[in-house]
Design brief:
With 457 residues, this protein is mainly α. It is 81% helix and 0% strand. The chain is built from 23 helices and no strands. The chain starts with a helix and ends with a helix.
Length: 457
Amino acid sequence: MVSGLVPRLTTVSSRATPDTSPAATTTPARRVAWASMVGTSLESFDFYLFAYFSAFFVGPLFFDPLGPIGATSVAFLTIAVAFVVRPIGAILFGYMGDRLGRRATLLWTIGIMGVATGLIGMLPTYAQAGWLGAVLLILLRIVQGLSLGGEWGGSILIATEHSGPVKRAFYAAIPQLGSPVGSILSAVVFIVMTVALPAEQLAEWGWRIPFLLALPLLAVSLYLRLTISETPVFQGVVAEGRRDRIPFVTMFAKRPAAMAIAIGAALLGIGSYSLMNTYTVNYGVERLGFSFQDLLIATTIGGLLQLITIPLFGAWASRIGSAKVVMWGALGTLLITFPMYYLLQSATFPILVGTMIVGGILPTMAWAALGGLMNDLFPDNFRYSALSFAYALAATISGFVPYVTFELGTATGFVWWHPGIILAVMSAVTLVSAWLAARRRPEPELASAPETASAAV
């Protein structure tokens, strides 16, 4: 086995002899990682935008005949429908990413997401066109879900495959900054809208403006992604003729246990955002007496803090390993879950902000190191498909978190601990998965490249 690998490693090394200057060592990988983060920021902006939108506007605007409870329930299901189709998008774009390249695939995913989000801002409401708007909304959510299925895995790979093994875990955390950036942008937009417009105008036409903002943001994201090159790792896979013909089948045939671990490890990082930024916003207003603006401000403060903690957790993952950071984040979240929701019942703004900060930092550990953990689980020739599908399946499960939590709350009379049950289950699953990942040896890089390889290519 070892002797069979030597020619491949030698071939790769002879193709790209790196420049040893400091600029060549750091600049390309950083530029690619930040360009990737801008794209994931747009994706997250679109996701959180619809999350806030669904919590208050989807029901009355598109499903009003169903009544308050029915409209709210269906509104949360419109979030879930995009998650249901994400595995299909992961299969489609995972195939493209492993066969055609990481960069080209990411241009498709970001373009589809941006256009679909802009079109939501042009939809007719139930009062204007009956059920037509609701049908078109669901169709656009399906299109968004397909795009999301291929975005995250490609963003992680475009960053990590331009970096060397020493800093790979750190660069894997940089695209994760897109989530708090998107959350901050969407929350700020809604805060400005609620301050600048009366509630009647916001419900009548103001809600369209945030969705239309996705179009100029799309132009910026496309420009940045056009300026980066294909990853040296994928170029090595192509040069060595190692592209898999059907990567979706191969990943289950060769790495079934790794797929299960990756899905479980991703559950808390995705599901906690879905719980906190969607269900908790609605729950805080409807049941605990907070104002919508207070919740958006608290969410924004938590997001601003994540801009600092995510790179720090990424640097920590470079020192102790990504799987261990995910494990500590899951354990910490499990321990603070029920005390956090108990204190939230007091309905004071300082406790709300504290809850968003503490309840955000610990799941953020699991989120920041997730890309590095999953990158180490799979070989490069079907890595795009594996990362995309595992993440998409975890996201599909997470997409039902607001709905399941709402139904659990209805069944228990909205007792204070009902959201804690959901968060504790997700934390436990991720804790076990991260522990199993920490016990596995990282996959060898047959076509690995140092951080200067992008300059050499």
